[in-house]
Amino acid sequence: MKPLWGRPSLAMGLVIIALAALVLWRVASEARTELAAAQAYRDDDRPLLAVEHYRRAIRWSLPLSPHTAEAVSALESIAAQLEEDGDFAGALLAWRSLLGGLAATRSLYTGSSPARENASDQIARLVALDRSVGIDASLSAEQLAADHRRLLSEESSLDPWWGALLLLGMAIWVGALLLLATRGFDLNGRFRWASARGPIWGALAGFVSLVLGLLFA
Predict the structure, then answer these.
(1) How many degrees, rounded to 5, is the angle at CA 163 between CA 158 and CA 196?
(2) Mind listing the pLDDT tens digit for each residue in 155-201?
(3) Minimal CA–CA distance to 105: which of 67, 136, 50, 60?
(4) Whose CA is closest to 94, among 71, 70, 65?
(5) Region 91-98: what's the mean pLDDT?
(6) Cα separation of 36 and 85, whole Å?
(7) Is the pTM higher than 0.85?
(8) Which of 114, 124, 20, 102 shows the shortest CA–CA distance to 54?
(9) DSSP classification of residue 6
(10) Per 3-state DSSP, what percentage of the chain is helix, strand, and coil (rounded to 5)?
(11) What is the DSSP letter of 188?
(12) pLDDT class of 8 with cuts at 50, 70, 90
C-alpha cells in the first residue's frame, strides 16, 4: 500500500477535513461559552453584560445552530423587560445587539429573517421616541420610525456571491500552486510540462476568480 506522504492529494484532503472539523468545534465551543456567561450575568441581574455575551454567541453561529435561536430569544426577552422597566436605552442596546449579531453572520443566501425584521422595527420605534434632536422636532413619531427603518434596511455589506467567488478563487489558486509544486517537477527539480499543465491552468483560473471577487464583492 502506498504511504500517505506518497499520495499528496489524499494527504491534502485529510488536512483540509481536519482543519474544517477544528473550526466547527471552535465555533460551537465559543458559542456555548458565551451563552453560559450570558446566562450567569442574567441570573445575577446584570442584563447589559448578558446582552454583550448573547451578541457574541450569535456571531459565533453556524447554520441551523440552536445557539443562535437561544441567544435571539434571550435578547428579545431582555429588551422587552428593560423597556417595561423604563430603561429605553438598555432596551435599544439589546435590540441593536441582536440586529448587529445577525448582520455579522453571512451566508450565500440568508433570505428573510423574522427576528432581524422585528429587531429593525423595534429599533426604529425606540429611536423615534427620542425627541431630543432639534432637527427631528417637526416630524411625527411615525415619520421618524419610517425614516430609521428605511436606513436600517439599506445593505452596505459585501455581495455574498462575489464574496464566495473570491474565497473559491483563493482556495483554487493556493491548491493549484501546491499541486504544481508537488507534481510539476521531477526528482531532479526539472520542470515537467505534461504534469504541470493542469495545475497551471487551475492556478490561472483561481487567480482570475480571486481578482473578480476583489473587484465586485
Answers:
(1) 155
(2) 555 667 887 888 898 889 888 888 888 888 777 778 888 888 888 89
(3) 60
(4) 71
(5) 92
(6) 25
(7) no
(8) 102
(9) G
(10) 75, 0, 25
(11) T
(12) low
